[in-house]
Amino acid sequence: MAVIRSMIRGVGAHVPQKVMTNNDLSKFLDTSDEWIVERTGIHQRHIAAEGETTADLGAAAARQALIRSGIDPVDIDLIICATATPNRTFPSTAVRIQNMLGVTKGAAFDIQAVCSGFIFAMACADNFLKAGQSRRALVIGAETFSRILDWEDRGTCVLFGDGAGAVVLEATPQHGDRSDRGIISSKLRSDGRYEELLYVDGGPSTTQTIGHLRMNGREVFRHAVQKISSVIEETLLATGYAADEIDLFVPHQANKRILDGIAKKLDVPADRIVMTLDKHGNTSAASIPLALNHAFEQHRISEGKLVLMEAMGGGLTWGALLARW
Ligand code: UT7
Question: What is the pTM of this model?
Answer without folding.
Answer: 0.97
